[in-house]
Amino acid sequence: MSAYAVTLIIIESLLLLVLLIFFIYKSVKLSHLINEVILLRRNSEKQNQVQRERDDFLAMLVHELRSPLSVMKGASDLMLKDAQNLSKEQIETLLNQIKSSSSGMLNIVNDILDISKLESGKFEIVKVKGNINQILIEESAYYVPMANSKQIKINNNVDEKLPEFEFDPDRVRQVLKNLLSNAVKFTAENGSIELRSELRGDMVTVCVCDTGDGITDDMKHKLFHKFVQLNNHNHTKERGTGLGLVIAKGIVEAHGGNIWIEDNNPKGSKFVFTLPLRQA
Amino acid sequence: MEIKVNKIKTIEVGRLIMYYLTMGKKILFVEDDEGFFNLFSAALSMRGYEIIHVVDGSQAVEKVKVEKPDLILLDIILPGMSGLDILKELKETEDTKTIKVVMLTNFGTDSNVNKAVELGADDYLMKYNVVPSELPDKVASLLGESKDSEVKFIS
């Protein structure tokens, strides 16, 4: 073999090697590009879904505010135009309706403010040493008339030996109000609701158990996320913005506790939240 | 002073006439929103109509058979049974099919309006558009109590 041929073979194989390296480099780059495109698409899908959820939430919010506003406007119009035709009782009913419609709207606005504080990290709690059982009993008493109208029994089962500890009483009341009003709303007539407190290790545990329809495993986590509301079947029209549980979660977590949903035996759901007995 | 007295008398007489015209007329109001119920029932009872309130959709048909109202105000989204299903059942039943039914709802979607009209609803009102003080006139015209008995659909 001549030296010329050897040089030619070496040059050829070097050329081939360079080409091979070039192709490998290109294909790696291409696969990166493909991955990037896939990621981008996935992100945009996620963004679209978030956008859709936001749109749905906004539509629901507008509806929740429009109803009480229309009622308030209608009631004041009627009283201005037809005051002489309305009886004293009718005027009283209309005024009470304006009052309850406006306080319902105020609650919605306050919920939205709480949510925005939670999102921006400006949510604050003010802890005071107190007796949580007293708050549980007071809050459950508040819901007794509403429960009675549906023949629902509310049973308190509090641990008398619970020591006093530090928590934000107003915010804990807010959590309880949310859980109890949901329990009364979603429990059928002749059902029952149990409010329980106990000490589990270092955590004060509060349960609100009901004999309602229960919650599917899929929904158990979703309910604590924003813009998610329990889908109502068979045309029930329960009011609410779906923000209550998100705020409840924020309040409990700000205390250093947890909130979750379990199945209640034999029927219904059990909302459990914990608050630490001692400060971290 | 005299003018004032006369004015009061005119109002009283007008009220008496209105009461006389609507005396004994029953309206069955199927509505689960307490706010709208309180508002519209105040406007209607002001004119002397007797209002019967039903919250649960599944009890509406039974209540109609018992109470035999002159007119039914029917919400669409209800607990128990939807307003459109109630309307269908009422219009298919011999005893109840002649009773006037006014659909009263939040959602004026074309499909709902068309379906309600198809099923035999006598009118379709959007809650937000209803002026409470004009509701009694609307009801009176449907019941043929006023000169203007022409019925217009609001969509």
Automatic annotation (TrEMBL), chain A:
The keyword Transmembrane applies. SMART domains: HATPase_c, HisKA. SUPFAM superfamilies: ATPase domain of HSP90 chaperone/DNA topoisomerase II/histidine kinase, Homodimeric domain of signal transducing histidine kinase. It catalyses: ATP + protein L-histidine = ADP + protein N-phospho-L-histidine. GO terms for molecular function: ATP binding; histidine phosphotransfer kinase activity; phosphorelay sensor kinase activity. This is histidine kinase. Gene3D superfamilies: 1.10.287.130, Histidine kinase-like ATPase, C-terminal domain (3.30.565.10).
